[in-house]
Amino acid sequence: xxxxxxxxxxxxxxxxxxxxxxxxxxxxxxxxxxxxxxxxxxxxxxxxxxxxxxxxxxxxxxxxxxxxxxxxxxxxxxxxxxxxxxxxxxxxxxxxxxxxxxxxxxxxxxxxxxxxxxxxxxxxxxxxxxxxxxxxxxxxxxxxxxxxxxxxxxxxxxxxxxxxxxxxxxxxxxxxxxxxxxxxxxxxxxxxxxxxxxxxxxxxxxxxxxxxxxxxxxxxxxxxxxxxxxxxxxxxxxxxxxxxxxxxxxxxxxxxxxxxxxxxxxxxxxxxxxxxxxxxxxxxxxxxxxxxxxxxxxxxxxxxxxxxxxxxxxxxxxxxxxxxxxxxxxxxxxxxxxxxxxxxxxxxxxxxxxxxxxxxxxxxxxxxxxxxxxxxxxxxxxxxxxxxxxxxxxxxxxxxxxxxxxxxxxxxxxxxxxxxx
Length: 421
What we know:
It is a single chain. The chain is α/β, with parallel strands linked by helices. It has two domains: 3-36 and 323-420, Aspartate Aminotransferase, domain 1 (Alpha-Beta Complex); 56-321, Type I PLP-dependent aspartate aminotransferase-like (Major domain) (Aspartate Aminotransferase, domain 2). It has helices at residues 3-16, 52-66, 86-93, 106-117, 135-147, 152-155, 170-180, 202-211, 231-234, 261-264, 306-322, 324-346, 373-382, 406-420, and strands at 38-39, 100-102, 126-130, 156-159, 184-190, 215-219, 238-241, 256-259, 350-352, 365-369, 385-386, 388-390, 394-397. It has a seven-stranded mixed beta sheet with strand order 2-8-7-6-5-3-4, with helices on both faces. Strands 9-10-13-12 form a four-stranded antiparallel beta sheet, with helices on one face. Strands 1-11 form a two-stranded parallel sheet. Strand 12 and strand 13 (394-397) form a beta hairpin. Helix 1 packs antiparallel against helix 14 (406-420), helix 2 runs antiparallel to helix 11 and helix 7 (170-180) packs parallel to helix 8. The longest helix is centred in the C-terminal third of the chain and has 23 residues, at 324-346. The protein is globular. The model has no long low-confidence stretch (mean pLDDT 96).
């Protein structure tokens, strides 16, 4: 295809797609001169839904008019605020509503859940994670091991791809789990690897962990709202995610937690307790003894941060309307089209390290450049493309199905071709 035919094909696809109108429900970023940007960075920060201001204004108005009584009045009383997110989040991550809760921040939530689900012994103490994981996960695993008196360099196993390969093979993960056996306490992987964009087989990994007596947890920062998830059916023990990427809650938005029912229904599971995780029927009686409420909500520490959660609610409204299955299909179609266009336009100058198998990836495509990748990113920025550079040589782009279009991708391909020239 020539550039002009690429754009023409893209516009035709956009025109006939049933989800095309969702783009109009987001604020689209522009340059200082008011020309539009090609925004392909939803894997770092999602765009602002237009409904955010209305949601925030409603809570600000309730606070102004009713003050403390807002905890028990209005359409969404603050006392029960987290419950108004459970159905939507459950549909996104494949869970029962009582297994999820919007709370806290990703790494803080990870530490909270590891307090419950990483309880090493002298013989079963090892944690398996992917090599090259996002640094925050690595810091969390190493500090947890050290907190329990283990040498992190011994306790934390970081599995890396085979020589000459970019992504992990599922069979290598499963073989390592089986080999570690009784020494393994926890398998803790990213659902989608932040750097390569690889989507892991959570069901197979969870089963393998359980077969050797270990637990399985997942960081879904790059998977929630992006890839199909079935956390309950896959029998994952726990998971955490942020909401400011594909879930569009705004910078630092309220994160989320999944705890499988077999743990959430067990009040004897140890945890770091706070009063908002207490039985809500007894909470304001100020009991001295903590009695956890049922489900993931029993891991809450503090009352809901209503204003940032209002922004998340505006985004979840769109997910409820569009539905994850429809968004996933659109995402797979867009990714396949983009890969073909890249092959035609710049294939001999770029290595795509994200798996091409649509079942092993989400929206993100990671491009490795054989020259100066940072310079390529700077050239793209100068041409109005927003992606992101990850050292040493990768530029990540993520056409997200709620607001990106085929035309966005066509323009990116053309501008990348120009930048490389």
